[in-house]
Amino acid sequence: MSWLKQITNSSVGAKSIVALTGLAMVGFVVGHLSGNLLVFGGPDAINGYAAWLRSKGGLLWGARLGLIAITGLHIYFTIRLNLLNKQARPIAYAKKSYTKASFASRTMVLSGLLSLSYILFHLAHFTFRVTSPEIAALGHTDVYQMLILSFNSPLVAGTYIAAMVLLGLHLNHGLSSLFQTLGLNHSKYNPMIRSIGPVLGSLLAAGFMSIPVSIMLGILK
């Protein structure tokens, strides 16, 4: 297994693992948003979708555990990559220059860790239902009302919206750099590739935020 150790201990290997796990997580986010947007189809649509997911039983929990493992690897190797970069440049610059480095790229570790914190809260709130007696009382049968109750709380809705802003910020840089890491960049298409992160990150964040905003405005009730 020396080859595995060699890969994981190198910056190139760490970048590849971060890129591949990030790609898998983006796939999950797209799928998760697609399911969540069914709330605009009414109670039957979102509750039917939730019932279909629960019917998968072991497969659903296998997917959840796999996602947790992928997320753990993504965070671990992102931090490791950051440390490797610092080790390669042990003497800090006398004056940092952020001419080429965007705010999103400079805050990747921070936005990732804050997003993880929200994911844990999100699971406690919506999946395990331990943060609110009102949500727990609904059981698993009425996801629509669970969302309405949750996002009628300014604190819960505001936290969700802030987390989605962080998600969009994280994807802004992450998606664009992913292509470069995997060697999928090309001088002819680089401008388009660089736009994928900001565009898709903004669309995904806006899609998620549309749910609490619609509930707070009374569009969904």
How would you summarize the topology of this molecule?
Blueprint: H1 2-8, H2 11-36, H3 43-54, H4 58-88, H5 103-106, H6 108-127, H7 133-138, H8 143-151, H9 154-181, H10 190-216
Helix pairs in contact: 2-4, 2-9, 2-10, 4-6, 6-9, 9-10
Detailed description of the structure:
It is a single chain. By secondary structure, this protein is mostly helical. It has one domain: Up-down Bundle (3 helical TM bundles of succinate and fumarate reductases). Helix content is about 75%, strand content about 0%. The protein is globular and about 55 Å long.
Task: List the helices and strands in order.
Answer: HHHHHHHHHH
Number of domains: 1
Tell me what the CATH architecture is.
Up-down Bundle
Using the CA coordinates, give the radius of gyration. 20 Å
Shape: globular
Main sheet?
Answer: none
Q: What is the count of β-strands?
A: 0
**Global structural class:** mainly alpha
Low-confidence runs: none
Supply the CATH class: Mainly Alpha
User: Kindly, what is the distance between the CA atoms of the first and last residues, rounded to a whole number of angstroms?
Assistant: 56 Å
Please, how many helices? 10
Average pLDDT number:
82
Percent of residues in helices comes to over 70%
What attributes does this structure have?
0% strand; mainly alpha; 3 helical TM bundles of succinate and fumarate reductases; 221 residues
Give a brief rundown of this model.
With 221 residues, the protein is mainly alpha-helical.
